[in-house]
Structures are given as C-alpha cells and as structure tokens.
Write a structure and sequence with these properties.
57% of the residues lie in helices and 0% in strands. The chain has 4 helices and no strands.
Length: 87
C-alpha cells in the first residue's frame, strides 16, 4: 500500500492506551461514507465502528494526512498520463 507509510509517518499508533482500529479499514470506511453519504453510525461493520472511523478522519484532517495522500495520488496519476492539466 502506498498510502500506509504516510499514515504511519503522520499519525503513528500511540504506545499507550487502547489500540486503534485498522488504518486500512478506517480509510475504506471514510471513502465509503464520502461516496455514499451514509451516516457514520450506519457504516457497514466491515469498516469497524463508525465513531472510530470518524475520529480517524478528524485526526487525519488535522495532521495533514489527506493532503499528502492527494499529492501522492496526483504525482502517480501524472506519471501514468492520467491527469489532463489542459482541462
């Protein structure tokens, strides 16, 4: 996964306290919620607890995770010729 190192760098797991839910499930849950518009408490269980996914999203917004992911995706799309900059 090319996104995992960004999450690990900007939001490493805490050494104390309760373990977090998985980053992959949280990211998939965030994408699902954004695409479908479903309420956080109605997320399918495959993504984990909706409040945990929502907290992960809030944390990642505050830490700039999504900006870094976006920059990486743009860079990879540009290499593949998938971005039409003229448009």
């Amino acid at each position: 996964m090319i996104i995992e190192p960004i999450i690990q760098e900007l939001d490493p797991p805490a050494t104390t306290g309760r373990p977090r839910s998985g980053e992959r499930e949280a990211l998939n849950g965030i994408i699902y919620q954004m695409r479908s518009g479903v309420q956080w408490n109605q997320l399918p269980k495959q993504f984990g607890d909706g409040s945990s996914v929502h907290r992960a999203m809030q944390r990642w917004i505050a830490k700039g995770v999504f900006e870094r992911i976006w920059a990486l995706l743009i860079e990879n799309c540009e290499e593949l010729g998938g971005v039409n900059w003229q448009w």
